[in-house]
Amino acid sequence: MMPQHVLARARERLTTIDATAPVTEAADRMAKPHVDLVVVCDSDGRMVGVVTKTNIVGQVRQCLGGACTTSVADIMVRDVVSCGPDGSLQDVWSAMKGTGLQRVPVVDGHGRPVGIIYARDALQHLLREVEDEEALLRDYVLGIGYR
């Protein structure tokens, strides 16, 4: 199964921000329900990093008063684990498990974000695939439909 099978849901979760935007703008976006990861893009719309709530809290702690003029580019994670829509969902899950990530951006061939896959969605689809294979194997062994 490929990430494109979960892409409709992944597209709904995508939130992007320009790398030059202030941290406060990223915080505003993260204040919305179910937004835990913001993909940072350059002026051409290509992913250059991600910002998490942990990044924002760490920066806001250092701000004095209400003035936090730091840009998103200064706090973003640049070494991002991502996947393409045509890769293997099993590979995505393995990368998530190996790195402890709960969310992975999906990028197109030009590096532009098209969605965010959550670990829960990847696991649900992989489990459904195993259950389907199990049912087919059971039917085959029991000879159902082959009389």
Going by CATH, the homologous superfamily would be CBS-domain
Give the percentage of residues in beta strands: 15-25%
The stretches of 5 or more residues where confidence is low (pLDDT under 50) are none
Distance between the first and last residues' Cα: 31 Å
The biggest beta sheet is recorded as:
3 strands, mixed
Tell me the quaternary state.
Answer: single chain
The CATH architecture comes to Roll
- The CATH topology assignment is CBS-domain
What does this structure look like?
With 147 residues, the chain is α+β, with helices and mostly antiparallel strands. The protein has a single domain, classed as CBS-domain (Roll). The chain has six helices and five strands. It has helices at residues 7-12, 23-30, 53-60, 72-75, 89-99, 119-142, and strands at 16-18, 37-41, 47-52, 103-107, 113-118. It has a three-stranded mixed beta sheet with strand order 1-2-3. Strands 4-5 form a two-stranded antiparallel ribbon. α2 (23-30) links the parallel β1 (16-18) and β2 (37-41). The longest helix is centred in the last third of the chain and has 24 residues, at 119-142. The chain is elongated, with a radius of gyration of 19 Å.
Produce the secondary structure layout:
Layout: H1 7-12, E1 16-18, H2 23-30, E2 37-41, E3 47-52, H3 53-60, H4 72-75, H5 89-99, E4 103-107, E5 113-118, H6 119-142
Parallel strand pairs: 1-2
Antiparallel strand pairs: 2-3, 4-5
